[in-house]
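Dear colleagues,

As part of the handover before I leave the project, I'm documenting each prediction I ran so the next person doesn't have to rerun anything. This entry is a single chain, and its sequence is reproduced below.
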Amino acid sequence: MSNLRELALDAKAWPFVEARRILKRIGGKTPDKGYVLFETGYGPSGLPHIGTFGEVSRTTMVRRAFEQISDIPTKLFAFSDDMDGFRSVPTNVPEQDMLTQNLGKPLTSVPDPFGTHDSFGAHNNARLREFLDRFGFEYEFLSATECYKSGRFDDALMAVLREYDAVQSIMLPSLREERRQSYSPFLPVCLESGLVLQVPVVELNADAGTIVYKRDDGKMVETPVTGGHCKLQWKPDWAMRWLALGVDYEMSGKDLIDSVRLSTKITRALGGRPPESFTYELFLDENGEKISKSRGNGLTMEEWLTYAPGDSLSLFMFQKPNTAKRLHFDVIPKAVDEYFTFKEKFGAEDDSARLKNPVWHIHNGAPSADLTPISFNILLNLAGACNTEDKSVLWGFISRYAPDATPESHPSLDGLVGHAIRYYKDFVKPTKKYRAPNEVERQAITTLIEALSVLPDDAEASDIQTQVYEVGKTFGFDPLRGWFKALYEILFGQSQGPRMGSFIALYGVEESIALMRHALTDEGLGAA
């Protein structure tokens, strides 16, 4: 056994903790199907959202951790519940009237409002796959419609029919009294209307594999439960899928705790073994409300990638999955800078420390060596100080600070410059609120100008930072963060900002002195 595997078997990072649970589940032996199966689920009733990406990303992290501690083959199924009945029209898609007319049909039978695919379900599936492919996830995509219609689920559906009473005994106590009267795990797909029907089942024929249901018009209809003629209700469907596919591991959000509990009971009633589960906390929007693909609140995946590199999104998903987190634009700069900090540390760490480092899990143990000598936060303030949206202007300052860096030699940094300009333009610039310095702050800034004036223009960031610190101490700022907050508000129009030594070294000592002098003039307020 390699030293790295020995370390992984004891690693404390949460993906390794999960991986060891899976290894214990299978007794260290390859399952009869020949692999360990990880699954993620997606309901394509609306456009894919960032939470969907998070589930695939986190599951992949557990999968890679498992592969580090075991040689047993693995697979990841990204499953789309695209045969589900279309229940409500998302507000963030076109053709609202047309979609309303197709409510109740399987999502793969609803026309695509964007006009690019055979159905709304197919369109949303494609959006999901395109995005997952951009991140290089290794997965197999499964469509519920295809699994139902191809017969892949037939054996498991027959098990549900045979154990109908057992399934009902699990589900009915969880339902309201009026719902119990008509509830059935089977949802027939009407041959005449194409609708997924929620109707009472009045007769079962396990030998023939059929049910008889009563339509709203009173007509009795007999239909097979196999071959795509019936869809299952959500919780029995989840259990049936676990049984049919042999799922070993699946994670889900806190809002599905009750669904996991009931589906687990149903799987056992069908003679199967439910997967190991992991419950993660929900993502919240800026108002503290759960993000929803139907409402379109919170950040989309595309929006995050407009303002930050994708690896920073993966870091956000890795950190504290058991803690509810706000998923709004203001979390992006911190995530970006933390990602590059972890990546820089990785190179100097031993194997044990690396297994704890998030970039090990983001890059499957092999992050690239390209680093950035400048933080995202400093780039945002540089864009503000320069009052520019031109990358070449920022690169003029960067080249002076880091002479060996060019857009060609540091593509990650070049991409970060573009992200910073877009983020500054859309979120920082509109909210800037400059203020005039009070008398003590004015004297402190004047003294700082004098201290910087005797430094060479190529002074080290650490030497500049020392001067900033000393001025703050001299003028009695306690704690010192009050001094830095004052500089941020007076010079940058915001309450938070970069490490001043690093910013001044990047922007230039002379340019920084000019910025401070301008801020002390009557016309300096808000004009920086």
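Residues 159 and 270 are 6 Å apart (CA to CA). The longest strand covers residues 36-42.

All the best with the project,
I.
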